[in-house]
Fold:
Amino acid sequence: MQSVFDSNAAEYDSWFDKNNYAYQSELEAVRRFIPRPGLGIEIGSGTGRFSTPFNISIGVEPSRAMAKIGDERGITIHNAFAEDLPFCKNHFDFVLMINTICFVEYPIKALSEAYRILIDNGQLIIGILDRETALGRIYDSIKSSHKFYKKAKFYSTEEIMIMLQNNGFREIQTCQTIFLNPESMNEADEVKEGFGEGLFVVINSIK
Structure:
């Protein structure tokens, strides 16, 4: 899976420019839960498209090509996997994972690692493409022919919530956006509380 992102990092990064309304919608949803101030880290930081708007200067990314672009955006990116983070426990105020868990081989281990590196009452903020929505079902049905999502495993919001609870996280909150095909959007979508309608769901939880 890494090789797909290593070989196509620039193409991946360009999606955010080509689909700027969808990107802005996602940013606004994530913004609902970002604490201020706080020391944050993004796990699966990719090219830094979600780190930089929220002044997150530390990332973890296994794809060196993606990390190179993130480095150019001023992020210190560690070449590592979500299941084995190179940080001490109780270190970060919040952890961001946006469209990452669908690519993680062992999601329970990744959530355990996020829990470990968070301070008490720290936040884990996860963004997913919700499989159990109208758009999510379309994405899931065509992923076998999609360059980046071919090997992804999409989850429902409820599945992620159960994983979080089983890993000790509490006070789970959600919001959602992207109710239209991102490629046909002509303005940013609204952000609503809850889940079940919007393709992109942000799940906030507390250690």
User: Anything to note?
Assistant: The chain has a mean pLDDT of 94. The chain has one domain: 2-206. Residues 8 and 169 are 35 Å apart (CA to CA).
